[in-house]
Amino acid sequence: MPGSDHIAELRKDYRKKRRAIEQRLAEFRAVYDQGDHAIFEELCFCILTAGSSARMGMRTIAALRDILLTGTEKDLQARAGEHRVRFWRLRPSYIYRTREHLKEACGLKLRELLDSFLDPQERRDFFAKNKAIKGLGYKESSHFLRNIGFRGYAILDKHIVNSLREMGVISKSLKPNTRKGYLNIEKKLAAFAGEIGIDMDHLDLLLWSRKTGEILK
Known about the structure:
Elements: H1 4-34, H2 36-49, H3 54-64, H4 73-82, H5 90-106, H6 110-115, H7 120-129, H8 138-147, H9 158-166, H10 179-196, H11 200-212
């Protein structure tokens, strides 16, 4: 556990950023309320963000937005290539394959699909473990669910994990690259959030902002 001075500084920073964090979380929930197409776009954003950055994902989504639902695999790849997107062959292929699978599985009725899960872990497992949904592990599945308004999922990217290690919340040996490891770190983050009186969803964004200087999605 970090010392009292460190926790006091964290709480001070949270007081400054709380309104912006709450606004961002409200924006995430608004995506869900916009319906299936907006939810699918957010899924695509998270596929594109894996191994890249939020800003790159946003830029790529802007380039592909008008053909996400209708473009062929080659259409998506060509558009991404024109915009010099990282992984321009692979990630558009993931989007195409995932879209076609979800069309067959649920007719792309994503709100109906998401609401069918009563257990939060089963909801995330569906995206993280489903081999027909390409490009998502536990981090990006959590990212996707958080970005459409579901609460209680930690986005354990390098910034969050490094922050937790630096503060002594987790050991250096603990890594989020398996389901067991991911859930273990998430549990420790949730416990730490409870101890310092900051909601875990807020703390996740707070720690990320302290590393990057931004409160992005």
